[in-house]
Every structure is written in structure tokens, then in C-alpha cells.
């Protein structure tokens, strides 16, 4: 299983993803692909995301059963802690007041 979620992605990237995966909700793509195809799709996302952000998750033969990667600015960032990949939240930036 492969899942890609994009935010603020250009229409051409969304169209490219729709060629390989099924868009089940706006910006949410699912499908089944080999490792080679998954890496090719993710390479296209990394080159075409522009000012947006994206996350990819796929099944693996690990203890958790999946792995994930991200690109672009988002409050949620992956960190590795004791060999386990987790998600850390960046603080909310307070608006400047004068």
C-alpha cells in the first residue's frame, strides 16, 4: 500500500500523481506500487511540489509495518529517536504585535 498526501501542490503534479494512483480525496492518493515505481513517483513529487508540502507512507517488512517521508514546510516533521521514526510538532509561530 502506498499513500501520498499533498497540500498546495501545483495542478500538473496532482495530474501526474493521478496517472499512477487513485485520488480518494482532494490531495490524497492511494495505490499499490513496487519500490522502484514508488521511488520514481516520490522523485516527481520532490521535483514538482514547489511551495507545497507532501508526505508519503508505504508498507514495509519492519516492526511497525510502514515507513514514511516528507517534503516541504509543515509543522509536522519526522524525527528518529532510538531507531524509531516519530513525528514532532514545531511550535506555532505567534503573530507579531506592535
Keywords:
single chain, 98 residues, alpha+beta, Alpha-Beta Plaits, five-stranded antiparallel β-sheet, two-stranded antiparallel sheet, 2 helices, 7 strands, 24% helix
Overview in brief:
This protein is of the alpha+beta class and 98 residues long. Helix content is 24%, strand content 40%.
Tell me what you see in this structure.
With about 100 residues, the protein is an alpha+beta fold. The chain has one domain (about 1-90): 2-Layer Sandwich (Alpha-Beta Plaits). The chain has helices at about 10-20, 35-50; strands at about 1-5, 20-25, 30, 55-60, 65-70, 75-80, 85-90. It has a five-stranded antiparallel sheet with strand order 2-3-1-4-5, with helices on one face. Helix 1 (about 10-20) runs antiparallel to helix 2. The mean pLDDT is about 90.
- Please, what is the average pLDDT? 90
What share of residues are in beta strands?
Answer: 35-45%
Describe the global form: flat
Return residue spans where pLDDT drops below 50 for at least 5 consecutive residues: none
Q: Percentage of helical residues? A: 10-25%
CATH architecture verdict? 2-Layer Sandwich
Please report the distance between the alpha carbons of the first and last residues. 50 Å
Rg, nearest Å: 15 Å
Would you list the SSEs in sequence order as H and E? EHEEHEEEE
Note the main sheet. 5 strands, antiparallel
The tally of structural domains comes to: 1
Please report the total strand number as a whole number. Answer: 7
* Strand-pairing-aware structural class: alpha+beta
What is the CATH fold-level name?
Alpha-Beta Plaits
Q: What is the top-level CATH class?
A: Alpha Beta
Sheet with most strands: strand arrangement? 2-3-1-4-5
Q: Helical segment tally?
A: 2
Amino acid at each position: 500500500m502506498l499513500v501520498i498526501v499533498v497540500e498546495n501542490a501545483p495542478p500538473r503534479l496532482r495530474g501526474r500523481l493521478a496517472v499512477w494512483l487513485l485520488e480518494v480525496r482532494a490531495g490524497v492518493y492511494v495505490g499499490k506500487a513496487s519500490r522502484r515505481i514508488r521511488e520514481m513517483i516520490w522523485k516527481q513529487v520532490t521535483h514538482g511540489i514547489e511551495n507545497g508540502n507532501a508526505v508519503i507512507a508505504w508498507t514495509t517488512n519492519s516492526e511497525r509495518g510502514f515507513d514514511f517521508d516528507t517534503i516541504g514546510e509543515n509543522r509536522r516533521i519526522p524525527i528518529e529517536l532510538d531507531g524509531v521514526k516519530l513525528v514532532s510538532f514545531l511550535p506555532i509561530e505567534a503573530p507579531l504585535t506592535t
